[in-house]
Amino acid sequence: KNLRTNIKRCYGRSASTGHITVWHKQRGKKYLYRPIIKSNEKAKSVIIGVSYDSNRTALTSINFDILKKKFFNDIYTKDTYIGNIINRIDSKSEFRNGFRLLLKQIPTGTIINNIGNINSKKSKYVKSAGNFAELIQKDTENAKLKLPSGKIIKHPITSLATIGSISNEQLRNIVIGKAGRNRNLGRRPIVRGVAMNPVDHPHGGRTNGGRPSVTPWGLPTKNGFKLKK
């Protein structure tokens, strides 16, 4: 119970008037927040459980820190199991799946995830289900990383990363199946403009308004239209 806290959520409505301010959002099912250990915190722990987390796509592992005698949550890495010992930020640590090391300690070509600066409490890259980055090159100051999008970035060689890929790679195969499940997730229906009346949308009346696609306020939606130059 100490690993879960309440979370304040936005339901897409004004706090004062109750009017809708963000479309397609609603309250959905209540759930608790499971805080994740800080990205740059040292620990030597054992995995004692794996749990579903309603706030992120990846699974989370429940770990027990052997040195500090406390429990904490962490993002669960694929192919690590209950009972495994996990080292975080240890200069003498072995090279194993789920271990958190500096980029300069990790060999080139390794699959990594949960990448973040050593001075930051939060990770910056590769945190969602099934994702991983590849360490493709290193020099004395920077490392080149290939992100899931295919983009190649430079990151300081003193940054931290976890070895392996994120768990729950089967998330993409989930079929929602019914409208009620989306409602529980806090998603309201999306109605096409052409299905409305002319008073409600420029596309209303089943005619598309005799014009190219526009927003409810008449701004073009195609050909890369931008309001600002």
Summarize the structure.
With 229 residues, this protein is mainly β. It has one helix at residues 179-184, and strands at residues 43-51, 60-65, 70-75, 85-88, 100-102, 111-116, 133-138, 142-146, 152-156, 160-163. It has a 6-stranded antiparallel β-sheet, with no helix packed on it. Strands 3-2-1-4 form a 4-stranded antiparallel β-sheet, with no helix packed on it.
Strand/helix succession: EEEEEEEEEEH
Oligomer: single chain
Determine the N-to-C terminus distance. Answer: 51 Å
Instruction: Tell me the radius of gyration.
Output: 23 Å
The structure class reads mainly beta
H/I helix tally = 1
Report the count of strand segments.
10
